[in-house]
DNA sequence: CGGTATCCGGCAGGATACTG
DNA sequence: CAGTATCCTGCCGGATACCG
């Protein structure tokens, strides 16, 4: 498949300052980072399993986002068994490389809005 | 202002697995991480200056995103001078705390789509 | 179980023109 | 310079119903 997913803008080529734009183009949606987070923590998941792990997501949104993540080679989908029908979504290498990014999101989020976030002057 | 911006969903409260959702709610848009990236690299900027640093953004999008980032206490806006009219956007402490996250985005982006990204087997 | 089809609303964001 | 106003588009995503 393509080295450069269509989701990354055409004008965004190589320049160092473009890398954030490129990343934001692939992950900058409501659910994508959360999906990657759950796959990092739980390993490969089935569809409904993933749905259960993500509070508030609708089946359609999950389906669409998984499809795009697959196109962008962040997630890999494989059929595990035919009867009963079982599918598994797992991170690719590229997807696993997102771990530091997701960890940074977790930390920033819980530092500022989490259970033990310190107010202005603790 | 509010500890928990409205943009973070109501059901997202404290639980550790919510921190990614919370962060995605605040930054998970097309331009926000890019804006933070530019402010990190260039320091405080005026409006047009920032517009020039961000390839492809429209004035309206920049205006809207800055307003939201300000509401979420990630960016601070201050009027520098009245004649000529000058404004400056700078990161708050909370905004500066995003640096590791933005750095992770830069690194993932340039590793996978950047000028010197290695193909599958270098 | 693992989705797709359809309908539908909202909002993000582009273009352009205009203001103080 | 630093925006706002308006118009208009497309996509995102929720709800629901249905399929193999």
UniProtKB/TrEMBL annotation, chains A, B:
Domain HTH hxlR-type: start-end pairs: 18-117
Statement: the UniProt record of this protein carries the keyword Lyase: no
An example Gene Ontology molecular-function term: DNA binding
InterPro entries registered for this protein in UniProt: HTH_HxlR (IPR002577), WH-like_DNA-bd_sf (IPR036388), WH_DNA-bd_sf (IPR036390)
Keywords of the record: DNA-binding, Plasmid, Transcription, Transcription regulation
PANTHER family per UniProt: TRANSCRIPTIONAL REGULATOR, MARR FAMILY, TRANSCRIPTIONAL REGULATORY PROTEIN
Protein name (Swiss-Prot/TrEMBL): Transcriptional regulator
Organism, scientific name: Haloferax mediterranei (strain ATCC 33500 / DSM 1411 / JCM 8866 / NBRC 14739 / NCIMB 2177 / R-4) (Halobacterium mediterranei)
Taxonomic lineage of the native organism: Archaea, Methanobacteriati, Methanobacteriota, Stenosarchaea group, Halobacteria
